[in-house]
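Schema walk-through. Below, the input block comes first and the output block second. Nothing else is stored per chain. Lengths vary across the set, and this one has 453 residues.
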Amino acid sequence: MGNPHILVIPYPAQGHVIPLMELAQCLARHGGINITFVLTQTTHSQILNSSALNNVALDDGIHLVSVLDASESNESSNVPGKLFEAISKIMPGKVEKLIRGINASSSESHITCVIADQSLGWALELAKKLGVQTAAFLPAAAANLVLGFNIPKLIDDGIINNEGIPAENKTFQFAPTMPFMNTSDFVWVRMGNLTLQRVVFQMMLGNNKSVKSADWLICNSAYDLEPGAFSLAPEILPIGPLLATKTLKTPTSSAGSFWPAEPNCLKFLDQHPPCSTIYAAFGSSTAFSEAQFEELAKGLELTNRPFLWVVKSDDANRKPNISERGMMVNWTPQQEVLSHPSLGCFLSHCGWNSTIESAINGVPILCWPYFADQFINQSYICDVWKIGLALKRDNNGSGIIKSEEIKNKVDQLLGDNSFKERALHLKEVTRANIAEGGSSHNNLMNFIKWINA
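--- output ---
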């Protein structure tokens, strides 16, 4: 018997690939486990390209394979729901062929476990059919699964109908220390269009069974970040935040990044005093209108503070006039940026990776959620942990966040030391979860032992 061989299948989006790659690296490093990491052709090329440009090496034992070519995955079409459709209809056959091929070959060690993104219920069911053990991985807050598990009850209580459409505008909490949820902010409702709303709602409802029947249900979170969620769904085991398990002292560039980072941004941060700089970054899928982009540029200028602003390449042709105080880049090594002493606050879309990277570094957050689960994360930040503030949209019908609002909220966040104090406290308790003997660390070690057994 050689080392165990596992198949890891992320949903092919940046926020899903990074934490699963972090997990794969932990398993390869601590457990001596061989990993076949399954991607679409597009994400496969992006990761290889950005790793080469940033000189980031994958751990020995991790092997990337692409199973869905660009024409099949429709990734370039930008048609809502098309990628999801390809993943649920074409990918299962390809993955089954891959597992059967590996397990029929005498030269390769057999795949004994599949770790799949919990949104890919078919992968967990396929593994079970092939007699392979399973682990479902949640790259988001545990609160999202608590919401998913409660969909049948929400329907019974008349809060939503059978299609997931809310009956009325209502705010509630499933438990104390859980985020406040407004029916208009449910994950599926915030998908932007009706097609995607239906697809995501059906997926969340349909995946409940496959997720609950997995041998392990693990989550990139920590007990101390979400005590309410873990008490309501004790079957979810937190093993994170994974980004910090490499080493708590020196964050490194992420191996699963789709885009190469701008190395000079760290030199820019070096020039500024502690807690002075605003870091503005909105993930890989936020899109701004021309008017909103201008207001954001104006707002950052109005703060009169140094700022590092990540502007995606498709927005890079919009070149606002910014002063010497600001630096615009296409992508950053975010973990290194957030752990930099000059950081004062993070102006963020509140994706879960960004949220926990901020928490683990004690950085207050100014919230600008865009879609999906980002509204749940905003409630954690503002209502539960109280380490940030939400930006308010203009109520004149435009729905734009104005430059004055950005400036005022930055002043409020950085002018009141209690935000920083709470953020530093959250940093300490979260790090205790992943330090040796902490609950996340113990869960991860038990998981590795189980794979090795």
